[in-house]
Amino acid sequence: MENQIYPCLWFDGQARAAAEFYCSIFKNSKITADDQMVVTFELNGKKFMGLNGGPEFKFNEGISFVVDCETQKEIDHYWKELTSDGGSEGNCGWLKDKFGVSWQIVPTVLPKLLSNPDKAQNVMDAYMKMKKFNIKTFENA
């Protein structure tokens, strides 16, 4: 049997609230266990653990979760939901949610466009000016 690897997120007493928040945003998601100290949950079938560890540690951009998006509608959905109620927009597709967790909301077409030598520089120039990514802007660059 192969060992399962999954992230543990340290919260200051908000692990259950965070799990509920994330499960409300991502399809095929659910809380699988909650014992007051530890909450385990799945987002799109991937296991996460939330720990009610206290105020000692805070999240930073050293770790982020990447959400691949096929459509602009998906980008708009995740951007809106994850920045809601106290989250904040960053540059180049990055954001922080209301718990301080960093996310990258990325269109799946971006690597293809960046690998096209005729478009790469224009796409990169557009990329660097955006907060939330816009697929049409990239395609028209």
Q: For the record, what is the CATH homologous superfamily label of the largest domain?
A: 2,3-Dihydroxybiphenyl 1,2-Dioxygenase, domain 1
Cα gyration radius (Å): 17 Å
The largest pleated sheet is described as: 4 strands, mixed
Q: What's the end-to-end separation, in Å?
A: 48 Å
The CATH architecture of the largest domain would be Roll
Number-wise, the strands total: 8
Per DSSP, the total helix count is: 5
CATH topology value of the largest domain: 2,3-Dihydroxybiphenyl 1,2-Dioxygenase, domain 1
Give the overall form.
elongated
CATH classification, class level of the largest domain: Alpha Beta
Task: Tell me, rounded to a whole number, the average pLDDT.
Answer: 96
Strand order of the largest sheet: 1-4-3-2
Number of domains: 2
**Protein structure class:** alpha/beta
Point out poorly predicted stretches: none
Overall helicity? 25-40%
Q: Work out the strand percent.
A: 25-35%
H/E series: EHEEEEHEEEHHH
Folded structure, characterized:
The structure is a single chain. The chain has 141 residues and is an alpha/beta fold. It folds into 2 domains: 1-55, 2,3-Dihydroxybiphenyl 1,2-Dioxygenase, domain 1 (Roll), CATH 3.10.180.10; 59-141, 2,3-Dihydroxybiphenyl 1,2-Dioxygenase, domain 1 (Roll), CATH 3.10.180. The protein has helices at 15-25, 72-83, 110-114, 120-129, 135-140, and strands spanning 8-11, 30-34, 38-43, 46-52, 64-69, 88-89, 94-96, 102-107. The strands form 2 sheets. The chain has a 4-stranded mixed beta sheet, covered by helices on one side. The longest helix has 12 residues, at 72-83. It is elongated, with a radius of gyration of 17 Å. The mean pLDDT is 96.
